[in-house]
Structure formats: structure tokens, C-alpha cells
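Q: What structure does this chain adopt?
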Amino acid sequence: MNPVREFLAEPAVADPPARTRRDLMVLGAIVASALTETAIRTDLGLPAIELLVCLGVAATVLWRRTHPLLMTALAFGAANAMSLLGALLDKAPLGLYTTAIVLVLPYALFRWGSGRHAAVGAIVMLSAWLIGITTDPGPVGEAIGGFIVLTVPAELGLVVRYRESARDREIEEIRLREREQLARELHDTVAHHVSAIAVQAQAAQAIAPTRPDAALEILAVIEEAASRTLTEMRAMVGTLRRGDDAELAPQQGIADLHRLAQVAADGFRVQVECSGRLESLEPMVDGAVYRIAQESVTNAVRHGRGATHLDVRVVGLDDCVHLTIRNDGGLVQPEPIGAAAGFGLLGMSERAKLLGGTFHAGPRPEGGWQVSAVLPKAAMGEFER
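A:
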């Protein structure tokens, strides 16, 4: 969000019960201080009026967050009235020292008020300062000091406001990344398992009249795939619930690549080969290898044209992991990465990019389709920033 628009926007502020109780305690302390000061001071010009004004100003602390401009206008308006009354009666400046509590209002105004309210409140505070130095003129240094004392709380409120806004924006950005990651996980899991179920169901339907025993075996595979899909869906939904403990399943990785062969139906074969140094991979890298391979198998099953087999090869080097997936078919309707028609290639590309790796997908010169990715063993992409 634009910082200027954010400042001009009207923030929604609610006082939780605990905060309200603290404010009541503060108000009680102010009232006690005002009563004590009125009782012991002998230089007050209008003790009763000054006490009532002080108590009225103190009451504004209860609504300073929800109605900062109104409370500022009331408090500084009362201060202006006391200054004018003192000048009219030719008395010393009226007001209790406890009335200095009014200085919390500039902080509240710039911390919780909208930009428009802050501008109006600044005019109110400036008028109070001008009336004060006019009705009770003194050295220039005192006037400057009073102005500084008045503006410092406002500056503090502004600083805290922008720090909180920056923190909220950072949290929102993190949430957005998490949602994008969950979207990729959800797409990869559901698309893969549902595609497997669809392929197996078609195969079972085709062979049921002549090979009922084989059809029953395929139905068992379908049941297992459906159960796995449901388990992973529950785990993901659990992570999205606030205040509930998610039933998290272990993240799948390179050790689970052999399961990809379960999507193979009659006439389609998946072969997995892993070699090199693949131990001690970071969980994000390990999971990314599996998800990219999973999505590649899904694409080959759903969109492959004339594909009969698919090879998944993972090679671990000293500092990176090479993943290559090849099939002997083409795509019925090849789509560039980022096309609106689907999110499979886009998701795989984003996974590699977020980890600081590279990704490429396209037709092979000798025929077929190939997906290749190089992922660093130590993730150095946007997840590490």
C-alpha cells in the first residue's frame, strides 16, 4: 500500500478489555494527582475551575485511540479557554501541573488518527501554542522549548505508526508468500493424485469386461491414491486454520520418488533413477525436487501425446542437485511458462526460482518433452531473504 494513502486512510482501532482496564488505572492515578495538587498548592487562581478542567482533560485518555481528533480538540480547546480566561482576569496562567497529561494526545493523534485528522489536530495544537505564548509572553527560548515539548510526542507517534505499518506490510508479504507456496503444494498434490485416479479408473473401465481381477487391483490402487490425497488435503487445511493444531504429515522428498510410478497405467511406464550425493539436503530443496518431478509426471499423463514412458533422473553434486524428467511424447497444446491456461509449469519455475535455482521445460530435439531443474543444496533464493 502507498505510504501516503496509508497515512490518509482511516485506521480501525478497537480497545481490548485489558487496554481499557489499564487506561482506567491511569485515569485513576491522574485524578488522585489532580486532587492532591489542588489540596497542597496555594497559588491557584481558580482552584475549582482548574481542577474540573484538569479532570475533563484527563478523561480524554479513555478515548484517545478511538477518537484521537475529538479528544485532542477538546483537551487543547480547554487549554485555550484557560489561557484566555487567565488573560481576561489578569491572573497568572491557569491550570494544574497535572494537566500536562494533555501531551499524550499528540502522540495518540499521529499514532492512531488518519492523515486528515492529524492535519486538523496539528492546527488545533498550533493554535493552543500561539494563544499560550500570546497570553503569557516570555523569553523566546521558552516559546521554542514549549513548541518542542508539544511536537516531540507527535513525532514519536508518527514514528511508531510507520514502524507498525512497515511490520504489518512485512507480515502480509510473508503471508502472501506462504499462500503462494500452499497454492503450489495444493495444486501439485491434488492434480497429481486426481490425475492418477482418473488414469487408473479409465484403465479399470477398459479392462473390467475381460479382466475383472486386474480391474479389482486397479481399484485398490485408486483407493490408496484417494486416501493419500485426503490425508494431504487435511494436513494443508490444518495449516490454514488459526488456533488449531495442524495434523502435519512428513514432507515428501527424493526418497518418495518411487511412488510416482504408481500413476502408470497400462502402456505407460515411469522409471526413477537417483545417484550422486543426495544426503543432508535442506527440506525445501528435497521437497522441491519431489514436487517438480510429481508435476512433470502429472503433465505427461494428462497432456502427453503418444507418451509411453517417462524417466526421472536425480543427480546430486557437491553444491547442487540436477533433476531431469524426459518422456517420449509431445504436448497436445504446448503452453509457455506463465500462460493463463495452467499453473503447472509456472509453479515448477517459481519453486526453482525461490530456491535460487534454474528451470527449463520444452521439447527435445530428438523428440519428446524434457523438464530440467538445477537446485542449490543450500537454498539461496527469495526464501532466504
